[in-house]
Amino acid sequence: MELNLYNPNEIEKAAEAYAEKNRGKVVGGLPDVVTIMEKKTLSLTCTVCGDPKPQVSWLKNGAEVEPDDQYVVSIDQGKFASLTIKGVSMENSGRYTMIVQNKYGGESVDIVVSVYRHGEKIPEAKPALTPKTIIPPKLPIEIPQPKTQPAPSGSSPAPSASSPAAPKAAPGRGIKSPTPSRRK
């Protein structure tokens, strides 16, 4: 059996913190609700981040959006993600979900798209109940190991107060100097 000098709870917490910091995230730019007139072009664009660069996918009502002549999915420089719907029609109404994810997890954002016909009253669209959902990391969380292994806690090389190699006190601070003072 291998002896682990680290506290497994601490490792888990550190791993979770690392995953939280590096997971795929939507930095902003997406609305909760979009109402758009028929035949217009809708572009949903936002900034994403994560390390490694996250994968971005789009769903419509829970099914993956297949890019075609009408749906254009793009990711620019690994951080600007967009879904463009050309010539929207009533069939394009629904709940769109953008999923941003890497091995440390990610999040999904819902956008409710409501298409209306020219001349109709603009519909009252309500945002999804949970506009953003956090996706947990894939387990076990793998953290890239630092090149130098940190010293295990408990055997720290830093000098402590009870260390025998404590620095000698400077003369003149309440300690008598071995040479007698020449006050005459």
Topology diagram in text:
Blueprint: H1 8-22, E1 25-28, E2 33-37, E3 42-49, E4 55-60, E5 63-64, E6 71-76, E7 80-85, E8 94-102, E9 105-116, E10 132-135
Parallel strand pairs: 2-9
Antiparallel strand pairs: 1-3, 3-7, 4-5, 4-8, 6-7, 8-9, 9-10
Region (Disordered): 127-184
Biased composition (Low complexity): 131-171
Pfam families: I-set
Rg from alpha-carbon coordinates: 30 Å
What is the residue-mean pLDDT, rounded to a whole number?
A: 81
Derived from helix and strand composition plus strand pairing, the structural class reads mainly beta
Oligomer: single chain
Low-pLDDT sequence parts: 159-166
Total number of β-strand segments? Answer: 10
Quickly count the helices.
Answer: 1
Second CATH tier, the architecture of the domain at 23-135: Sandwich
How much helicity do the residues have?
Answer: under 10%
CATH homologous superfamily placement of the domain at 23-135: Immunoglobulins
- Outline, from the CA principal axes? elongated
Strand content: 25-35%
The major sheet is characterized as: 6 strands, mixed
CATH fold topology of the domain at 23-135: Immunoglobulin-like
Domain Ig-like: 8-114
Keywords: Disulfide bond, Signal
Protein name: Ig-like domain-containing protein
Region (Disordered): 127-184
